[in-house]
Amino acid sequence: MRSDLSGSEKAARVQRMFSRIAPRYDLMNRLMTAGQDVRWRKEIIRLARLQPGARLLDLGAGTGDIAREALRQQPECLSVAADFTLGMMLAGQPRNLRGLVWCAADALNLPYADATFDAVVSGFLLRNVADLPRAIAEQYRVLKPGGRWVALDTTPPPQKSLLSPFIRFHMRQVIPLLGQIITGERDAYVYLPTSSENFLSAETLAQAVASVGFEQVTFRRHLFGVVAIHQAVKPA
Ligand SMILES: C[S@@+](CC[C@H](N)C(=O)[O-])C[C@H]1O[C@@H](n2cnc3c(N)ncnc32)[C@H](O)[C@@H]1O
User: In the chain, which stretches have pLDDT less than 50?
Assistant: First the structure.
């Protein structure tokens, strides 16, 4: 995706891309990560520390895997899966769980009052938004004081590791080829490594999160450093 696009052009392209790959999105995730993404989603929800009666927002929920995991770990919570691509949410419908609430929402302009949620989580959303500081600020706004924020996303691959050539080969050659075979949408899986390489480092993302007002910002890397889970707390 071109870097000179305006915010609304990028958003429209992101929506079109996810609409096209929606039917095979989950299968591609499992294959690309050798099933590790399932483990990361479990970790996100563990870090959200949901109590009975908690309200969770899974933003950029896509097909709803994280929102469903929340209900598995804490059946007494309200789990809201929000996204701005209808096709992704429709692809998640056959695996609906009781208690899961779907919502059409733009991460840059959330349709919720201040301090609505006990936890706001996301998986692979941040890299895709047209205005990252605004997306983080919106999540901060809708969190209750003391609420927990957790985000999973790719990070630029490490430059100096012995594994770097293999990681680059996997990202630049294997993933687009797999995307072509499984979804017929090679471009979407060229966008993935490109947007990952151009995204903030895990350290810089942590600074961006702290600059909005979050405290206790930490992160943990996974999959040879190409994925990170950040967490933070809104001051009580
Ligand atoms: C890579 S998918 C991630 C889906 C899911 N969270 C997961 O863990 O697999 C990114 C999702 O973010 C959504 N998204 C991107 N920008 C958004 C925005 N501004 N507002 C709401 N959703 C957005 C896309 O529609 C897409 O479903």
Answer: none
CATH number, residue 119 = 3.40.50.150
Q: What is the pLDDT of residue 1?
A: 59
Q: Which domain holds residue 84?
A: 7-156+200-233
Instruction: Report strand pairing: 227-233 vs 215-222.
Output: antiparallel
pLDDT of residue 163: 85
Element (H, E) at 104: strand 100-104
Ligand 1 proximal residues by C-beta, below 6 Å: 11, 14, 18, 29, 60-62, 65-66, 83-85, 88, 106-108, 123-125, 128-129
Locate the ligand 1 atom nearest the alpha carbon of residue 25 and give its number. Answer: 9
How many CA atoms within 13 Å lie on the side-chain side of 76? 6
